[in-house]
Amino acid sequence: MRIAHIITGLHTGGAETMLAKLIEALPPPEHEHLVMPLLSGGPIAARIAATGAQIVDAGIPRSPRAVLSLARLRRLVQEARPDVVQGWMYHGNLVASLSASGRPVLWSVRQTLSSISHVRPMTRAVILASVPFAFRTNRIIYNATSSAADHERLGYPTGKRAYIPNGFDTLRFRPMPEASAALRAELGLAGDIRLIGRVARDDAIKGHETLFAAFARVASSDPACHLVCVGRGMLPGRPHLDALATRHGLAGRAHLLGERLDIPELTAAFDLALSTSCHSEGFSNAIGEAMAAGVPVIATDVGEAREILGDSTRIVPAADPGALAECCLRVLALPPAQHEALGTADRERIEQRYGMPSVARRFALAWREALSGIGPR
Q1: d(CA 185, CA 357)
Q2: What per-residue string of b and e applies to 302-311 under the rule 16 or more CB within 10 Å gives b?
Q3: Using one digit for the tens of pLDDT, what is the confidence trace for 163-177?
Q4: Which end of the chain is more exposed for a tag (fewer CB within 10 A), N or C?
Q5: What secondary structure letter does DSSP report for 312?
Q6: C-alpha distances in angstroms, 195 versus 137, 173, 246, 255?
Q7: What pTM, to 2 d.p., does this model score?
C-alpha cells in the first residue's frame, strides 16, 4: 500500500512525531510512504528520511498565494499515485481533500477544541472552511474522544469518527539510569538535585504561566528542585519567558534547553514530569513518553490526560498553580521505593494500552478499509 501523508510541516511536535513513529512501525515492503509537508524544513524530516520514506516539499507559502500552489500539489499527488491520502492537522487535512484527485482521504485531528476562540484567526478560518470537506472524507481519525466531540459540535460529521490514540516506542523511551547523571552534569548541578521536567513548545496553550508559578511554590519548599523546560522556542532570551522567571524568582533554578533531539534521554533524566496544558491538548505525547520512561507524571485535566495516566490523584485542574504545586510536593515526598513503583506502573500502563505496534496496525487497518470502501466502525 502506498500512502501519501500531507502535513503542515516537520518541526518537532506531537503530530509530526506521531507520523515519524507510524512510518517507522509500518516499513516497506508492505507500506510505502510519501510525506508531503506544506512548509519546508524541520528536524523530523531527517528522522523520516532515515526510514527510506520519500519527502516531497509541497512548497505552499504562508500567504493568500497558497491557493496558487494547490494545483502543483495536486499534480504531485497524481504523479505519486498513492492508494490513500492521509492528512495531518488542520491545514494538512484540508489540503489533502483538495489534492486527492478522487482517492480515499483520511484526516487526523490532534487537538481538542473547547472554544474555537482559542486558536489563531487563520487556523480558525481553516477549521471552519474544512467543515463541508469533512463530509467527503472516508474517516476522521481523532486521538482523543473529547476532540471528536468538540469538532462534531462545530459540524464535523459524527459518522466519520474513528478513534486511534497515540502510540509509544517503549524501546526508545525507557528507564535510563545513566541519563540522570548526564543531564545534571550538563547543567552543572550536584547529584542530589531533583529535576522536574516539562517537554512542550513555547505556546500559550501549554500553560507555561501555570508551570512557572507552580514551580516557584515547589522551589520555595524544596531547595533541591530545579525545573527543566525542553521544546521549540523554550530558550533564554525570549522576553516573556525571562519575565516569568524573573517574576517568580527562578534565576538559576529554571533551565530552558530549547528544541532537542535527545528527548528520550532528557525525559528519562527527570525525577518528575509535568503536563501543564490549559486547553486544546488532545493526546499528549509528553505524558506517554514520560510514563514509558518510568518517570512519574502529573498532568492538568485537559484532553485525554486523565485516561492516559489512569490515576486521578495525579490529575489537577488546568491553570491552578496551587493544586499543581501541592501535587508535585506530595509525589516528591514519596519514599524512593514508592516513587520508583509509581514510575514502573506508569510504564506498564503504556506498554499494555499504547504500544506503537498495535496503534500502527489500527492505522493500517483504517487505510485498507478506506481503500475497500468500508466505513468507520
Answers
A1: 35
A2: bbbbbebbeb
A3: 999 999 999 999 999
A4: C
A5: G
A6: 45, 18, 20, 10
A7: 0.89
Number of CB atoms found within 10 A of residue 9's CB: 21
Tens-digit pLDDT profile for residues 56-102: 988 776 655 666 678 888 889 999 999 999 999 999 999 999 999 89
Strand duo 254-258 + 105-109: pairing = unpaired
> Which class for 207: exposed (0-12), middle (13-18), buried (19 or more C-beta within 10 A)?
buried
CA distance 250 to 244: 8
Dist CA 247 CA 13 (whole Å): 28
Beta-ladder partners of 316: 300
| Count of alpha carbons within 13 angstroms of residue 140, beta-carbon side | 31
**CA torsion, ordered 58, 64, 68, 71, to nearest 10 deg:** 60
Residues 6+ apart with CB under 8 A from 367: 1, 3, 83, 84, 86, 104, 106
Q: Which of 269, 296, 291, 311 is nearest to 351 (CA)?
A: 291
Q: Using an 8 Å Cβ cutoff, are 17 and 201 in contact?
A: no
DSSP symbol at 282:
-
Q: Enter the DSSP assignment of 281.
A: B
3-state SS assignment for residue 267:
helix
Q: Computed from CA positions of residues 78, 79, 82, 83, in that sequence, does the dihedral angle turn out positive or negative? A: positive
Residue in the structure block whose three cell numbers are 533541591: 224
What pLDDT was estimated at residue 64? 57
